[in-house]
Amino acid sequence: EPGFEERETIKNGLNVAAKSGFTAVAINANTNPIIDSKSDIEFLINKANNAATKLYPLGALTQGSKGLDIAELFDMQQSGAIAFGDYNLPIENDNLMKIALQYAQNFNGLVLSFPKNNKIAGPGIVNEGINSTKLGLKGIPALAEHIQIARDLYLLEYTGGKLHIPTISTAKSVDLIKEAKKKGLKVTCSVAVHHLSLTDDELHGFDSNFKTTPPLRSLTDVKALRKAVKNGIIDSITSDHNPIDVEHKKVEFSEAKDGVIGLESAFGVLNSVLDLEDIIPLLTNKPRDVFGVKNQNITEGNAADLSLFNPDVEGVFTLDDIKSTSKNSPFINKKIKGEVYGVFANNQLILNT
Known about the structure:
353 residues, alpha/beta, TIM Barrel, 4-stranded parallel β-sheet, 3-stranded antiparallel β-sheet, 16% strand
């Protein structure tokens, strides 16, 4: 919402987030119309005013996310936008990206750049490798991600400013960002839950719930991403929750729309593959640091902002666990560890019942 209410509404989406243990979420600008103006940001914030879970909007980097002209970044920030990026769309114009990084410095803005080079990726729909060859599906080389990240890091080194690279998916991407951080560049990155837990081996059933962008990668990549979480190279973990209605998902794999939902399964999946002490900071304070949002501390006198969960309960994630309007989860019938009970936030107790 706006524009794709059949996939998800703001009201239900925030309720799902609360029942999934999230007291705050940042939402992307992949709506219709695209969130690219002051009034669009105000619309989202006003719609979410009374929810337990706090909504932080991201504005589009370019007008209509078309990659041609920079959007009203300063005006959107003044209205509550916490960063700017074209969701799952790379900025192909090098000079436009350079100007965006320079312009955003005037108001300490954070620029997001999706890590994909469309010319290298071509018509690919899955990770290029043994599985794409076996299945006869067009592959996206990991190189498409690496070239885009390398370009953006060169631009950042030239311009200064702040850059966030969302949903990295390969071992080489980790290396590139690690080296940039060593140079002192102000770059941060995130990884999606599914890229920490699933590989392209899942594609053998041609289930479109495993079709996402960036695509699911190899086990080598998954292991490198988990290590980068533990070592502090990756700054945050995202659910990359992207509801897609059944009409656009339950079709031939090559025609299905990319995207998975991930709020309800996020904690249980992560707790199955990573240590709890590594997960919690990357879901709470660290992403707040990345986006310049004030941290919520458990201190006497502060407003309660609490996630309620048991990390030791083991079970299986089922279709019945999905409260989202869209059901495009890659984790249905997967074993998970950890049960979320809900949140206490904004003076409201929301339980996952």
